[in-house]
Write a structure and sequence with these properties.
alpha/beta; Ribosomal Protein S5, domain 2; Rossmann fold; Helicase, Ruva Protein, domain 3; 3 domains; five-stranded parallel sheet; four-stranded mixed sheet; 36% helix; elongated
Length: 506
């Protein structure tokens, strides 16, 4: 007897619908799973066997062929346990095939028949909903994540026996659909720019970077507050929109980083990998490719503390995702593309000991050759992709002990969000959200200069030997500075400030 159950599989961020076909015929007792299954799927036959037996059903004797169609695409994931088990029960008339119409089944089975939490529920349900499926049966522990899939009846159950009872009409699920209720920034930030004393130059750079989505590099001696400032950057970033939250949650769902009872990711990511990170962990990949740090930072911040301590290859591998806003990974079994529109924020010392530029501080003990070897890890092409470079000077004693109040993150964030609103109005038809994402043609359209501005930029272009990319990035930063002041035109003042954040050589 042949039966068919609907499920799906994830390849990168792409979701493919999969027909789980189960055929049982007479012959020697053997179970074959075909259709390019991964090892975790091949092992599912043992989990399904025990789950059926321990749930009061019998695993059939005979020749069992389980086909995952289409057979020419690789399948991964433990969520095929449930559709395989229901397919077997359907061939035994324990579940009527008509009860499975337009229903997607996802779930991993434990040996006692319980349904375990799985990865990637949100992207799978969103894709299957777009293909016309109206109902999904998933583990109860994934129901909170699935509540943001509108117009789809998502049923969360705890065991295989409950699934069978529900399909046969003997069980009414408590909640088969939860209406989405999105609220961004529900978590209160405990880190505030009010704690950062002095460093007005760094704060200004952070504000411009947050307002326009620009990449930023801080250079200064140890203890000057570079890491402290970077950790407070999320507190001034604009709130996530619902669509942005969905994009981020898809990535975190696939990698299994959503916590228990977690729905959407409501705050912008802030990732700070250690400098010993490998290239694959940074960009993504592996035997079964998964998103790396550049994708986990999507629509948020990737902070690289002590940039020269990262391997040169790890730094250089960032060039493509910074430029394209996505990372492509090619493997023998296929190509995978993950989004990577992140703000790169990095910090570094001016030399190995850190004190070559610090006045009234420790004496630098580094030789010119040591300083050269230290800074040469940051190549010219990489520096060219950094929009804002700021100097972090040593904090003065009076700044630490003074009673002068410093500006809070809340007040800075108001200016940032106002600037982003201006950019959204200007760029909404261009399908981008901030100035940093503008293409050269868009820069030409939206970053026009008056006669004085053109003369100033021409002079600096020749003196600093700017590249074409550097020229465009200066104009993008100038446009952001103008937006912070609600100015429709880019003045020479805005342009001059943007140029001072441009540093060709370390």
């Amino acid at each position: 007897m042949l039966t068919k159950v609907q499920s799906c599989s994830i390849n990168g961020l792409k979701v493919d619908s999969v027909d789980v076909e189960v055929d049982i015929s007479s012959g020697l007792p053997v179970t074959h799973i075909v259709g390019l299954p991964d090892l975790e799927i091949k092992e599912s036959k043992e989990r399904v066997r025990s789950a059926l037996n321990n749930s009061g059903y019998k695993f059939p004797l005979g020749r069992i062929i389980i086909n995952l169609a289409p057979a020419d695409t690789k399948k991964t994931g433990t969520h095929f346990d449930l559709p395989i088990a229901i397919g077997i029960l359907s061939t035994q008339n324990r579940v009527q095939p008509e009860h499975l119409h337009s229903t997607v089944l996802l779930g991993e089975l434990s040996l006692d028949g319980k349904l375990q939490k799985i990865r990637g529920v949100l992207p799978m349900l969103l894709e299957m909903k777009s293909k016309g499926y109206t109902k999904a049966i998933i583990p109860e522990s994934n129901l909170y994540e699935a509540r943001h899939v509108n117009d789809m009846n998502c049923v969360g159950l705890e065991s295989l026996k409950e699934v069978v009872d529900y399909l046969n009409g003997g069980l009414i699920a408590n909640q088969t659909k939860i209406i989405a209720d999105f609220s961004s920034d529900t978590k209160t930030d405990t880190l505030d720019f009010e704690d950062l004393r002095g460093q007005f130059n760094v704060k200004r750079g952070m504000e411009i970077a947050a307002a326009g989505g620009h990449n930023l590099l801080m250079i200064g001696p140890p203890g000057s507050g570079k890491t402290m400032a970077a950790k407070r950057l999320p507190s001034i970033l604009p709130k996530l929109t619902f669509d942005e939250a969905i994009e981020i949650t898809k990535i975190y769902s696939i990698t299994g980083l959503l916590g228990d009872n977690s729905g959407l990711v409501t705050t912008r990511p802030f990732r700070s990998p250690h400098h010993t990170i490998s290239n694959i962990a940074l960009t993504g990949g592996g035997k079964n490719p998964k998103p790396g740090e550049v994708s986990l930072s999507h629509l948020g911040v990737l902070f690289l503390d002590e940039l020269p301590e990262f391997s040169k290859s790890a730094i250089e591998v960032l060039r493509q995702p910074i430029e394209d806003g996505e990372i492509s990974i090619s493997r023998v079994n296929g190509s995978y593309t993950y989004p990577s529109k992140f703000m790169l924020v990095a910090s570094m010392n001016p030399c190995p000991c850190g004190y070559s530029t610090a006045e009234n501080s420790n004496e630098c003990i580094c030789s010119p050759r040591e300083i050269h070897n230290y800074t040469r890890k940051i190549s010219g092409p990489m520096l060219d992709r950094i929009d804002i470079i700021v100097e972090a000077a040593p904090v003065e004693y009076n700044d630490l002990t003074g009673d002068e109040k410093t500006e809070t993150s809340a007040s800075i964030k108001k200016r940032v969000e106002k600037a982003r609103e201006i950019q959204n109005d200007r760029l909404s038809k261009q399908k981008i959200t901030c100035n940093a994402q503008m293409t050269p043609s868009q820069v030409k359209q939206f970053c026009k200069l008056d006669k004085e501005g053109k003369e100033l930029l021409e002079l600096i272009f020749k003196k600093m030997k700017l590249s074409a990319r550097g020229y465009n990035r200066v104009l993008k930063v100038a446009r952001t500075i103008a937006d912070l002041e609600s100015s429709k035109e880019i003045t020479t003042t805005h342009l001059a400030e943007a140029l001072q954040y441009r540093k060709r050589e370390l």
